[in-house]
Amino acid sequence: MDLALLISSFSMQQGLAKQSQQEALYRSLRDMLLDGRIPPGTRLASTRTLAAELGIARNSAVYAYERLTEEGFVAATRTGTITLWDGRGQRHARAEAGPIQVRLADRVHGLDNPQPEPDRMLPFVPGLPSLHEFPILQWRRCVERAWKQIQPAQLAYGPAEGLPELRRAVAAYIKVSRGVRCETDQVFITDGTQSSLELCARMLANPGEFGWLENPCYSGAKTAFQSTGLRIVPMEVDREGMAPLESDWRSRPPKLIYATPSHQYPLGALMSIQRRATLIERARECGAWIIEDDYDSEFRHSGQPLPAIQGIHADAPVCYLGTFSKTMFPALRLGFMVLPPMLVERFRGTLRELVHRGHPADQLAMAEFIDTGLFARHLRRMRTLYTERRGTLEHALAKHLGTVLRVRESSGGMHLSAELNVPAQDTEIARQANAEGLLLQPLSHYRVLDGRAYNGFVLGYAGLTGATIEKSVTHLARVVESHGGIKR
């Protein structure tokens, strides 16, 4: 064994982190064995010799050898400690075979995003609530009380459908606020809308069946449908929401229909009551399930919101999805789905094999937050705040980009969408803006397969103050001008 090499490796290990001498020696020997720097069959130095050479206690050397023996790297014999691991041979075999060829499943082709994760606190990020306005002290007290209530048994995996306290609170709230028809047993707690979408796609449709998506559409819905092997069909959106043609129902009958009727994402259209009723009727006729994502329904800026599609008929084939990521904060990772009565038992039994629910304190705290009225109070504050910020953003856009961006009408939400009235490409403008600290989402990225292409931006405003909005829009105008979009 090359003691000089070991001494060098040992010194390096000690410098990398605060490790004990015995841990540093063990890691040094293990790395040298894995790399093939100590060939198989090598007789290691005795623990006494090794300790003397390294200037460490003999017990440290004994520890390192014993641990390597337990892991099968070496074996103690009458004549000494012999290495067994053929690391050098495996390394040579890998080199001869060449680099490993990576091919993911076809169902996830096109879902990869090589871009680095953006800073979610940058101006114009959509879907992010005003985190600075969140009542964190009140929430912290709810969490602390929840931990005081938790018993040891609740530290195990919880019910797959979620804790009954939160399910009951959610059912009571959405009955009043969204006109949802449900009982507690129909409410299932999930990790958020994306989790709910993936569960519905896996449970309700088979690979190869048709899945209808709005075009443009929330990218997570496309991900859920594609990753479960559905044949995606884009459905165009007009001022009344998703607008399927009669030929679509005949030639490409859906098994799943994903819709955001209360605030179409990202364009903001509100699905009319006539189209909602028709969608339910036609879905029932062809045996389809509607996945209703009640996106941003809590933040309607004018008038009364239309009730959820789910509440139109008692036996509507609708899975209603909601999330606390927008109304509370994204890191909470809590959402819910309301299933039709005929699905409840089938989902409950299967979910026990698919998911293991946890986070009991967060679920109990969320239940208290709803029951005590803190949730409703927080939503009222945010609704007023977001209405003001949207007005400020619309005014700033009209002032600096009035002839360049056409803002689409929308009755609520935390973002607005705007289409470019110039030949510049939204992706190119977004690339430059992102590099300069503005997180623009191009509308073209929300296109579904061969659906109609859009050219514009999705601009989030929930987390922006009035001063920040003016500054950010002025900055955006400079970026657009650099692409020839503004003539002065």
Overview in brief:
This protein is α/β, with parallel strands linked by helices.
- The CATH superfamily label of the largest domain reads Type I PLP-dependent aspartate aminotransferase-like (Major domain)
From the spread of the alpha carbons, the general shape counts as globular
Largest sheet: 8 strands, mixed
CATH architecture of the largest domain: 3-Layer(aba) Sandwich
* Percentage of residues in DSSP E strands: 5-15%
Assembly annotation: single chain
Tally of DSSP β-strands:
14
Q: Report the total helices.
A: 16
Describe the structure.
The strands form 3 sheets. The chain has an 8-stranded mixed beta sheet with strand order 3-10-9-8-7-4-5-6, with helices on both faces. A 4-stranded antiparallel beta sheet has the order 11-12-14-13. The chain has a two-stranded antiparallel sheet with strand order 1-2. The chain starts with a helix and ends in a 6-residue tail after the last helix. Helix 6 crosses helix 13 and helix 8 runs parallel beside helix 9. A hairpin with a 2-residue loop joins strand 1 and strand 2 (80-83). The protein is 43% helix and 13% strand. The chain folds into 3 domains: 3-96, Orthogonal Bundle (Arc Repressor Mutant, subunit A); 131-375, Aspartate Aminotransferase, domain 2 (3-Layer(aba) Sandwich), CATH 3.40.640.10; 377-482, Aspartate Aminotransferase, domain 1. The chain is globular, with a radius of gyration of 29 Å. With 488 residues, the chain is an alpha/beta fold. It is built from 16 helices and 14 strands.
